[in-house]
Amino acid sequence: MRGLTVKMAPSILSADFWRLGEEVEQVERGGAHLLHVDVMDGRFVPNISVGIPVVESLKAHASLPLDVHLMIVEPERYVGAFARAGADIITFQVEATSHPYRVLQMIKEEGKKGGIVLNPSTPLDVLDYILGDVDMVLLMSVDPGFGGQRFIPAVMEKISQLRREAPSLDIEVDGGVRLANVQGVVKAGANVIVAGSAIFDSLDPCETTKEMVRLAQKAWGEGDLPGGVKDLLR
Ligand code: DX5
Ligand code: ZN
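A: This is the predicted complex of the input protein with D-xylitol-5-phosphate.
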């Protein structure tokens, strides 16, 4: 796990969209590392969320990199538009396309980072011949479509297995992560942590983000080490 650091990625799906700017500023002040933007089409998932104009506005005003999670059928039709709207990382569901390799190439041609998302019941072996081409793998820990669902416990073992296979890969986990289980998720091997309702439904999203980051870094082993020592270990 050399060189990897923990990154907290609050999901704006659970934010109050009337006050989106303020909500984003709160998690930025809380030390978030990425903004997770959930794009849903009402086809791949039974819900519809936000799209290209929201990514453009976030890009214009937010200082954090945008981690755009596409839960849409045929992502190849839209990755270019999301890249041009300002996404920094684009992840797409492997179940939603017949051509994941091509989609990754399209993302890279736009100069962006690309990652593959696996639903909880999708086996890791879909990654067998493509792992070398991804910048990140996102393991869903709920079936996608809604915030506020419960973490599916079987995914813990899946995270550990992928970490054993890919020690230096960014592994993101999304769904049902909260203060009570974030350390377990990190100890299993995830280093990019999405949390929506746990942050934005809390009384103080800034403080909750800080606490999530603190707990996650402690579980990863960053929290206990002074900066200089950390650098020596890289
Ligand atoms: C679910 C989305 C998630 C969601 C997570 O389909 O991909 O990013 O916002 O929400 P919580 O953290 O509330 O489970
Ligand atoms: Zn997501």
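Residues 205-220 form the longest helix (16 residues). The beta strands are 7-10, 35-40, 66-71, 89-93, 113-118, 136-140, 170-174, 192-195.
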